[in-house]
C-alpha cells in the first residue's frame, strides 16, 4: 500500500516552510530564486525545442503537439521543488498560510514575493541570454524558430483580461502541483504529483509570469518584433496579477481556512492509504 500525507499535515508543513522562508536573509532567498528562474527557463527551452521542432505533428495534430509541449515543460518545476529552489508563483499560495494564522506580517510576505520575483527574473533572463541565445538554439535555421516567435507574439497581443484570467488558472494549477508534490513520501510520487497539473496548464496555453520571463525575452533575442513596453504592459503585468489571485486567493487562503491551526495537527501524517 502506497501512502501519501494527509491534506491537513501538508498545510502545516507548508506553514512551517513558509515561516522559515520569511526568516531567510535576502541574499540567500535571491540565490534560491535565481536558481528557480533558471530551472523554469530550462524546462521552457526544452519544451520549445521538442514541441516546436515537431512541425509535422503540429500541422497534422495540433492537440498532440500541445500535449507534447506540456509534457516536457514540467522538468523545471520538478527541479525547483526537489532541489529546494524558490519560485514566486508558489510563494503566492504558501505564504498565505502563516499570514492567515497571523504568524507573519503582510510586509514580510510582500518582501518574500518581491525578492523571489527579482531572483526568478534574473535567472530566467540569464537562461534566455546564455543557455538559449549564446548556444545558438534560437538561430533562425532551427525548425522550432517560428514556433518561438509565434508563441511570444501571441502572448503580447492577447487582451489584458484574457492574460489575467489565464494567469489565474495557471497559478492555481502550479500551486496544486506544489501541494501534490508535498503530499508524496517518495521522489517518484512527488514528480508525478507535480507533473500532471503543470502539464495541464502548459498544454492549455495558460500564462505563467516566470515562464514568460523566459519565453518572451528569448523570442526577442531571436528577432521577434516585440518591444519591452509591449511585453511588460500587455503580458507580464496581467499575468503576474493573475498569478497572485490564482495562488493567493484561490489556493493559499482557502486551504489555510479549511485546515486552520487547531484543525491542522495530526498524530499520523500518513493516514491516507492508496492502493
TrEMBL record:
InterPro entries: Aquaporin-like, For/NO2_transpt, For/NO2_transpt_CS. It is a multi-pass membrane protein. Keywords: Membrane, Transmembrane, Transmembrane helix, Transport. The chain crosses the membrane at residues 29-55, 67-88, 109-138, 158-179, 191-216, 236-258. One of its GO terms (molecular function) is formate transmembrane transporter activity. PROSITE patterns: FORMATE_NITRITE_TP_1 (PS01005), FORMATE_NITRITE_TP_2 (PS01006). It is found in: Membrane. GO terms for cellular component: plasma membrane. Belongs to the FNT transporter (TC 1.A.16) family. NCBIfam families: fnt. This is Formate/nitrite transporter family protein. The lineage of its organism: Bacteria, Pseudomonadati, Pseudomonadota, Betaproteobacteria, Neisseriales.
